[in-house]
TrEMBL record:
Primary gene name: pdxH
Family the entry assigns: Belongs to the pyridoxamine 5'-phosphate oxidase family.
Cofactor section: FMN
PROSITE patterns assigned: PYRIDOX_OXIDASE
Coiled coil: none
Pathway in which the depicted protein is active: Cofactor metabolism; pyridoxal 5'-phosphate salvage; pyridoxal 5'-phosphate from pyridoxine 5'-phosphate: step 1/1; Cofactor metabolism; pyridoxal 5'-phosphate salvage; pyridoxal 5'-phosphate from pyridoxamine 5'-phosphate: step 1/1
Domain of life, per lineage: Bacteria
Name of this protein: Pyridoxine/pyridoxamine 5'-phosphate oxidase
Keyword Oxidoreductase among UniProt keywords: yes
Enzyme class per UniProt: oxidoreductase
Length: 217
């Protein structure tokens, strides 16, 4: 059996030097600190600062992760949109527990939310759908998300067909397209620290208020 050189990922490491996170830096509500960090990620011109990794679990307990874009947030929830026939949507229909993770690596920061997802109302979905670029609206019709396809050409052909069909008219909302609102009860903030002494604070909902603990790195 021939030998091959292996890429030794164990040797990849660096120091985290951008600064710490102290209790005095925290806000009363976790969404206030999240908004501050998100604005700083935008100001730093990070690619896709609203990209979040969401984790769901299937009927066998197998977790799945994928990246989606945050489209709205308020004091109690975060919102994203998707094909309702997608794997993630099917998972959430049977188990609405979800984890959302924002990996802002260049700022040496992470934010994780734990909560439960619920379907958005038709009125909320229609309003957002028609705010999207027309090509994005058409693309929602083209893809049966997570289904198996033989070639990319199938998608491209269908897209061109529908683009011509809706050339001079409004694109209707597909019945299989919608969104979810995630109501969260736990938020963790992570800031990289030197010598691997990272700063971690977790907010956990207690009634109408939030309890905050520092976690060991």
């Amino acid at each position: 059996m021939s030998e091959r050189n292996e890429f030794d990922v164990a040797e990849l490491r660096r120091e985290y030097v951008r600064g710490g996170l102290r209790r005095k830096d925290l806000t009363k509500e976790p969404i206030e600190l999240f908004e501050r960090w998100l604005k700083q990620a935008c100001e730093a011109k990070l690619y896709d600062p609203t990209a979040m990794c969401i984790a769901t679990v299937d009927e066998h307990g197998q977790p799945y992760q994928r990246i989606v874009l945050l489209k709205h947030f308020d004091a109690n929830s975060l919102v994203f949109y998707t094909n309702l026939g997608s794997r993630k949507a099917k998972h959430l229909m049977q188990n609405n527990k979800i984890s959302l993770h924002f990996p802002w690596h260049p700022l040496e920061r992470q934010v994780s939310f734990l909560g439960k997802a619920e379907r958005l109302s038709p009125a909320e979905v229609v309003k957002y759908f028609h705010s999207r670029p027309k090509d994005s609206q058409i693309a929602a019709w083209v893809s049966q998300q997570s289904s198996r396809i033989s070639t990319r050409g199938i998608l491209e052909g269908k897209f061109l067909e529908l683009k011509q069909k809706f050339l001079n008219g409004e694109v209707p909302l597909p019945s299989f397209w919608g969104g979810f609102r995630v109501t969260f009860d736990s938020v963790e903030f992570w800031q990289g620290g030197s010598s691997r002494l990272h700063d971690r604070f977790i907010y956990q909902r207690e009634g109408d208020s939030w309890h905050v603990d520092r976690l060991a790195p």
